[in-house]
Amino acid sequence: MESILEQSKKTWTGRVVKLTDVHGVKRDALICQVWNVDDEGNPTYINVVTVSTDENANDQYGRQIDRTYTSVGQKSDLNTAGRYFELV
Predict the structure, then answer these.
(1) What is this structure's pTM?
(2) pLDDT digit string (tens) for 15-37?
């Protein structure tokens, strides 16, 4: 039988969350890894990818992605001004 974490990885990987960066700017992000979950199976720490905010960061596929945000905590778990995510 799969653990809650393994089930949650399947459920949440690929979903969109609202990321708040260190400057307080909110933007959409895509979950690419779930590291920890709460008792209900909701992610508490994740890795995400975002679309680059640099308008010059383009390649043949379009705007490049940014993998800067790793081990991002859920807002409800943190007392921080930025660098957290919220479930949508």
Answers:
(1) 0.88
(2) 999 999 888 899 999 999 999 99
